[in-house]
Amino acid sequence: MNKRQARLFAIGSTVVAAVAFLALTIDSHRQFPALTNAQNITPAVTHGKNVWHKNNCINCHTLFGEGAYYAPDLTKIAQQRGAPYLQAYLRDPSKFYDEQRHRRLMPKQDMTDAEIADLVAFLDWVSKVDNQGWPPRPILVTGAGVAITGTRSADQAAAVSRSAPPPGPESLPSDKDPMALGEIVFRTVSPACTACHSLVPGANMAGPSLAGVATRAQQIVSSPEYKGKAKDVEGYLSESITSPSAHLVPGAMYSANGVSFMPATFGKDLTPDQVAHLSAYLASFK
């Protein structure tokens, strides 16, 4: 290549790169309104953003992977926890975790109910922004675990790494294995069960640990205090998935004003077969 050819190549490649950059910029701006959920920015969302900055939440938390890494990323927290849980948690975090035992150092911000409601509205808006999977990591929570197939014990559950990837299509079980199918539902449903529940004994998160849940379910169904309609363990587990407020487990950590913090959407989002498979899977944790 002589000097003239090199010059023409440099000029041509610069023009091509500039055109590509301009086209991508225009396309990005064209998609911003839909991707950013801009049509749902309300005065409450705007005020909630101001509350977020006023309380320096970003000094500990991250949104879209930006911020401090001292505390969990909150990009999808509204979908994973739900508004009732977040409102109760923000009123008094100490009711949910023991700082000495869990090392939860979330301070009580003494926000008003209006500020809390608007902050939750802001986090809900953030959770619905199409961030195309970024950041590519789950929320960090104490004791998170991933389920395993086969006969399960507390020791086995505790030994499983929380970072195990979901099974690929080639490893999907047949429809004759409801427990294995239930495990896949447990690991892939949205919001993920592992966002709120651990399989490690004693590692209570937003929801109670599911280690030994079948044994507890039998005790609850047999108790005169039980207020639901289930007759057996799997029926109770199915009821807990589809109608979480049918029977409330005592304790401020899991409910408020007679409503469970467990999302009430799984009854619509899951098919009856998926609920049955998930119940069969959970019933194996005795």
Could you characterize the architecture of this molecule?
The chain has twelve helices and four strands. α8 crosses α12 and α10 packs across α12. The termini are far apart. Helices cover 45% and strands 3% of the residues. It has 286 residues and is mainly α. The strands form two sheets. It has a two-stranded antiparallel ribbon. A two-stranded antiparallel ribbon has the order 3-4. InterPro entries: Cyt_c-like_dom (IPR009056), Cyt_c-like_dom_sf (IPR036909), Cytochrome_c550/c551-like (IPR051811).
In terms of topology, how is this protein built?
Blueprint: H1 3-35, H2 43-54, E1 62-63, E2 66-67, H3 77-81, H4 83-91, H5 99-102, H6 113-127, H7 154-159, H8 178-188, H9 213-222, H10 233-242, E3 255-256, E4 259-260, H11 266-269, H12 272-282
Antiparallel strand pairs: 1-2, 3-4
Number of helices: 12
Main sheet, how many strands, which sense, barrel? 2 strands, antiparallel
Structural class: mainly alpha
Count of DSSP E strands? 4
CATH superfamily of the largest domain: Cytochrome c-like domain
Provide the descriptors you would attach to this structure in a database record.
286 residues; mainly alpha; Cytochrome Bc1 Complex, Chain D, domain 2; two-stranded antiparallel sheet; two-stranded antiparallel ribbon; 4 strands; globular; metal-binding; electron transport
